[in-house]
Each structure stands twice: as C-alpha cells, then as structure tokens.
Design brief:
The protein is an alpha+beta fold. It is built from five helices and 13 strands. Strands 4, 5, 6, 7 and 8 form a five-stranded antiparallel beta sheet that branches. Strands 1-2-3 form a three-stranded antiparallel beta sheet, with no helix packed on it. Strands 11-12-13 form a three-stranded mixed beta sheet.
C-alpha cells in the first residue's frame, strides 16, 4: 500500500486475507518509495517502517537538529533516491532540496511531512507539517492528535481541526467516525491524556457517519460541519480561571 496513508483498521482487515501486507512511504521526489513496513495484527499504530537500502531518513527540528525518540519533527530524506530537483524551478528546488549538514555534496529532501521515531526503531508518519497550528502560545501538530485518537478501540476514523466560530474563541474539534457506538467524550479525553499534554486535548468531539472526502480521496476539511458548541455539554463542564 502506498500513495496515501493506510488506515489501521483497513490494514488489520487486509492482513487476514493476504499472504503479506506492506505499508510503503515516499514522495515522488525520492523516486519513489523510501521506507517500508510489514503490517501485522499486533500493530498498535500503522508504522511506515525503516528506510530502504541506500536511503537515509531524518526527523529534525527547524534547525535540522535530530530529535529524540517520540518527539515529532519534519521528515527529511537523503540517499541515492533523491532527485536532482524541479525542472526549470531553481527557487523551488533550493527551498525543498537542502545541503546535507553532515557531509558536502549530498542533499536532503524536505518532505513537508511530520513524523517521529518509535521505541521499536520504526518511523511513524503524523501527517503534513502545513497542518501545524499555533493556539494559545502552543504549537500543535493536528496529525499527532489524530494518530493518538485513532488508537482508541472505539474510533474507526477521525480528523482534528481548529474552529473559530466565535471571534477570538479558537477550539480544537475532533470529528470521529465511531466503531459501533460513539465513545463518551470523557473516555476519549482520558485516552488522549495518556500520550498528549492537556493543551492538545480537543474541547469537542463530533460524531460523524463518514469523513467527507475530495475526489482524490483526501479529506475535504472545508466540508466538516460547524459544531453546536452550546449543545455539546462541553461549556457546562468548563472551569474558568481561578486566579
């Protein structure tokens, strides 16, 4: 499977009906696959695995410094698969293909994807870096919230966005396609708190029968419905500033 993210539930379902299932990752600019992972029934998260031969993958911060295990950063790819650049687009080539800070000559390709190394040595993709937002002074990776939420047994699919339905009141909203009945909001929050800080916990969880998609299969975020904040029970639970 390649080209788009492989949902965990689909991956687990396929494993039972095929000899082997492999999840592959890599942008066109690295011709074409860069990492792969053999999917098993025990996978808690759909990993993109390890770099293939003659390929190096880095997860770094904004200054190209390597990040430790578990910390999200941008995925850069180096090695023999990295292409020369974009035809007749020197400015875009310079933006996306950066000199290797460790050795002269080779270049790194900036994927624009977020990821983190797992304790088992595999790589987890968290979505696009252009879905990073800043809310109340914190930088938040929406893909990281989505990945953690998708690990809940009662969640089949989800997408997290910010909404500002009232000027100045920015909120995290999770749209959830449940597996069976919709889990309670408090149960979903407790699940997320095991992996995420409090400022990354959505204020609202909206049940959906399906996530709206574009013709190419990508999420149609603009079609996600507005939330009826005053009817969701969240405001009633709100505790205002105490000092």
């Amino acid at each position: 499977c390649g080209g788009e993210a492989l949902p965990r539930d689909l991956g687990i379902a396929l494993v039972g009906g095929v000899g082997e299932l492999w999840n592959m990752y890599g942008p066109t600019e690295t011709t074409i696959w860069s990492t792969l992972h053999r999917v098993t029934r025990t996978d808690g998260v759909m990993s993109i695995g390890h770099p293939i031969a003659n390929t190096q993958v880095y997860v770094v911060d904004s200054k190209l410094r390597a990040l430790p295990i578990g910390v999200a950063g941008e995925i850069f790819i180096a090695g023999d698969g990295v292409t020369r650049g974009y035809l007749a687009r020197p400015e875009l080539t310079a933006e996306k293909f950066l000199p290797d800070p460790h050795a002269p000559g080779p270049r790194w390709y900036r994927t624009g994807d977020l990821g983190r190394w797992r304790t088992d040595g595999t790589l987890e993709c968290l979505g696009r870096s252009d879905h990073q937002i800043k809310m109340r002074g914190y930088r938040i990776e929406l893909g990281e919230i989505e990945t953690c939420l998708a690990a809940h047994a009662g969640v089949e699919r989800d997408v997290v966005i910010t909404r500002e339905d009232q000027p100045g009141d920015v909120r995290l909203v999770a749209y959830v396609v449940p597996r069976g009945g919709m889990p309670a909001a408090d149960a979903l929050r407790d699940h997320l708190r095991r992996s995420l800080p409090e400022y990354m916990i959505p204020q609202h969880f909206v049940e959906m029968s399906a996530i709206p998609l574009l013709p190419n299969g990508k999420i149609k975020r603009k079609a996600l419905p507005k939330t009826a904040l005053e009817t969701e029970g969240v405001i009633r639970d709100h505790v205002g500033p105490l000092t």
